[in-house]
Design goal:
This is Fibronectin type III-like domain-containing protein. The protein is of the alpha/beta class. It has helices at about 5-15, 55-60, 75-85, 90, 150-155, 170-180, 190-205, 210-215, 220, 225-240, 285-290, 315-320, 350-360, 380-385, 400-410, 430, 450-455, 580-585, and strands at about 100, 110, 240-245, 260, 295-300, 325-330, 365-370, 390-395, 425, 460, 470-480, 480-485, 510, 520-530, 535-545, 555-565, 570-580, 585, 590-595, 595-605, 610-615. The chain folds into 3 domains: about 20-215, no CATH class; about 230-430, Glycoside hydrolase family 3 C-terminal domain (Rossmann fold); about 470-615, Immunoglobulins (Immunoglobulin-like). The chain has 18 helices and 21 strands. The site of one 2-acetamido-2-deoxy-beta-D-glucopyranose (NAG) has 5 residues, from loops.
């Protein structure tokens, strides 16, 4: 049986929210001496920011000699100055998660791991807001970084300016980049650019200057009402409505008096938090939140998430038989999917499927299935089961997940979330080994493609699927349908593979690295809410490459916007897309190229599409 590569799925999910999580792992906390945990903590020394003049004098240095400590200069000038003062060897030592610092410049060690110093991580050497560090020293959160941690490490010689990784969560860069520069594989200017990005982030967040409004943040700010409400809102926005037959949902709170709340996640606590999370303020379980709407009869249905036997199913059926509505909260948790714990299949574990079927069969009232997971689940049985009126996917919704689920079920919130990945049929796991890394299909071995970009087979639910309690109509109001790019004498036409019998344009493509990439296309879509409930719509925009191109992606997301539209109202949504970023394809040699010819912009699930022509002239 092929194993599902959880790590890949995990990286996708996390990177969408916080990049740093994608490569976070438990690392020993005691092996680092950091500004924040050693160099500048209340118990270590008395310094909380790098450019404290007293700190410099304690090091025998004069802070005024270092322009990067001069607050009157712009951040980019200060960052450039710092980088310029380092030798190549010093530079490469700052490219891993454990920055070594540069003592002669007064630059301390720094640990980027696990969201650095923001104070809420439950893993890694960041700040915990414990007795040692009662308030934040600064708030470094990685931005301006694209790429996927360990997956990208192998691409040390990054060919495209569109794909760069400024920091390696590991030791690969510090160990090998100096050699790569000496061999001419990496330009020192690229390292300078990466370090400059990193130091601008740290400057903006107060690491060098101790920005007072950041330094004053502490434990009290984490669980404020505003932030607790944000947790609830994030969980609501992330909820995806997968099935809703005959408007099963929302339930009418006036009519439903008794609820059967069933399943191994019905009273979920820690499971809602997932991993690489912060320490929650106060968890509200689905059971807690649903109890506000009626008399609740809770039956767990399974002994544990793996649901190894059916001994608890019968009591759950009895509860469903009597209740006005039945809510089953099932799925998986970290005992089944986690880093270093790949799933064996895409099904619900053990007797969960049987629990859901039997409870649905027995139920008197409407049946709602709520699922927790990060990866996709083959729940085709529930999708096709007429007794199951509605299905919701909650992901791992966080501490206020229970409230969000109840808000959606009883119509206090109209869901608008969409799946961030394809939910494959279980047979997908047998079609290719987890060791096969190409995203493209491997025809010679019969392997299908990976992700919505390359997989064209049938699915349980496709990427970006998600329903609402209302309906939206799209109208294209305006669109730029062509772009003319004049090539200078250094910009050359580049050959790309077309399928036999396809029309090949005279200048098939130009490499993105050779281009200025200033061209933009724009268009405007009107989103009308034609139903009778207010709601949010996520407008997803894809591009499709020209017909006949060999082995390119089927489509790719190039933009999305979430808009709230009141019932009966409409909103205009404008997109401005960079031509290189939006219409490029990656060829067999891993070059990003812009093909000429007829591309297609697709809005939503093929609701609207229009051509965009790319012309090159010299
Ligand atoms: C920090 O400051 C306190 C009080 O001013 C002083 O007693 C202590 O020695 C200082 N610690 C260090 C490491 O300088
Ligand atoms: C729900 O879980 C909480 C926390 O684990 C526990 O204290 C509580 O007793 C559970 N509720 C029921 C009804 O089992
Ligand atoms: C069924 O599972 C429950 C909970 O895990 C366990 O306590 C019980 O002993 C199991 N029963 C049988 C017959 O294996
Ligand atoms: C779907 O992809 C496979 C490769 O996985 C390819 O052989 C097949 O022709 C494609 N089918 C369609 C209809 O595009
Ligand atoms: C929505 O659009 C579809 C097709 O684009 C059309 O058939 C339908 O009448 C529209 N509905 C409303 C209420 O405008």
């Amino acid at each position: 049986m092929a194993k599902i590569h959880t790590a890949l799925i995990f990286v996708y999910v996390c990177s969408a929210y916080f990049f740093i999580l994608a490569c976070a792992r438990d690392v020993p906390t005691n092996s680092y001496t950091l500004l924040g945990h050693g160099d500048a903590t209340p118990t270590g020394s008395n310094f909380t920011f790098v450019c404290d003049p007293k700190r410099y004098s304690s090091l025998g240095l004069d802070v005024t000699k270092f322009p990067f400590c001069d607050k009157s200069l712009p951040y980019d000038v200060r960052a450039s100055d710092l980088v310029k003062q380092m030798t190549l060897s010093e530079k490469v030592l700052q490219l891993g998660n454990t920055n070594r610092g540069v003592p002669r410049l007064g630059l301390p060690k720094y640990e980027w791991w696990s969201e650095a110093l923001h104070g809420v991580s439950n893993v890694g050497p960041g700040t915990f807001f414990d007795d040692l560090v009662p308030s934040s020293t600064s708030f470094p959160t990685l931005i301006d970084i694209t790429g996927y941690g360990t997956q990208m490490k192998m691409q040390l010689h990054i060919p495209s300016k569109q794909a760069r990784l400024d920091l390696d969560c590991g030791e690969f860069y510090p160990r090998y980049v100096e050699g790569s520069v000496q061999q001419g594989k990496v330009r020192e200017a690229e390292i300078d650019k990466s370090l400059k990005n990193l130091y601008i982030v740290l400057l903006r967040l107060g690491f060098f200057d101790g920005i007072p409004q950041y330094t004053s943040f502490g434990k009290k700010d984490i669980c404020s009402d505003e932030h607790v409400e944000l947790a609830r809102e994030a969980a609501r926005e992330g909820t995806v409505l997968l099935k809703n037959v005959d408007q099963t949902l929302p339930l009418d709170a006036d009519k439903i008096k008794t609820l059967a709340v069933i399943g191994p996640h019905a009273n979920a606590t820690a499971a809602m938090i997932g991993n690489y999370a912060g320490v929650p303020c106060k968890i509200v379980t689905p059971l807690d939140a649903l109890s506000a709407y009626g008399e609740v009869n809770y039956k767990v249905g399974c002994g544990e998430m793996k649901c190894r036997n059916d001994s608890l199913i019968f009591p759950a059926m009895q509860a469903a038989e009597k209740a006005d509505a039945t809510i089953i909260v099932a799925g998986i948790d970290l005992s089944i999917e986690a880093e270093s714990l790949d799933r064996d299949d895409l099904l619900l574990p053990g007797f969960q499927t049987q629990l859901i079927k039997q409870v649905a069969d027995a139920a008197k009232g409407p049946v709602i299935l709520v699922l927790f997971s990060a990866g996709g689940l083959d729940i085709g049985f529930a999708k096709n089961n007429k007794k199951i009126g509605a299905i919701l996917w909650a992901g791992y919704p966080g501490e206020k997940g229970g409230l969000a689920i109840a808000d959606v079920i009883f119509g206090k919130y109209n869901p608008g979330g969409r799946l961030p990945l394809t939910w494959h049929e279980a047979s997908y796991a047998d079609m290719l080994p987890m060791t096969s890394m190409p995203l493209r299909p491997v025809d010679s071995l019969g392997y299908p493609g990976r992700t919505y970009k390359f997989f064209n087979g049938s699915t349980v639910y496709p990427f970006a699927y998600g329903l609402s309690y209302t309906q939206f109509n799209y109208t294209l109001k305006s669109a730029v349908r062509s772009t003319h790019i004049k090539l200078n004498k250094f910009q050359h036409c580049y050959g790309i593979k077309y399928r036999a019998e396809s029309h090949i344009p005279p200048c098939p493509a130009v490499r993105i690295d050779d281009m200025d990439c200033k061209e933009k296309i724009n268009f405007e879509v009107e989103v009308k809410n034609v139903g009778d409930r207010d709601g949010s719509e996520v407008v997803v925009v894809y591009s499709k490459p020209p017909e006949g191109l060999d082995a390119s992606h089927i489509k790719q997301v190039v933009g999305f916007q979430r808009v709230f539209v009141p019932a009966g109202g409409s909103k205009k949504v404008k997109f401005v897309l960079n031509v290189c970023n939006s219409l490029r394809v990656v060829d067999y040699n891993a070059y990003s190229v812009l093909p000429s010819g007829g591309h297609t912009i697709v809005i939503g699930d093929d609701i609207i599409s229009f051509p965009v022509h790319v012309y090159f002239s010299s």
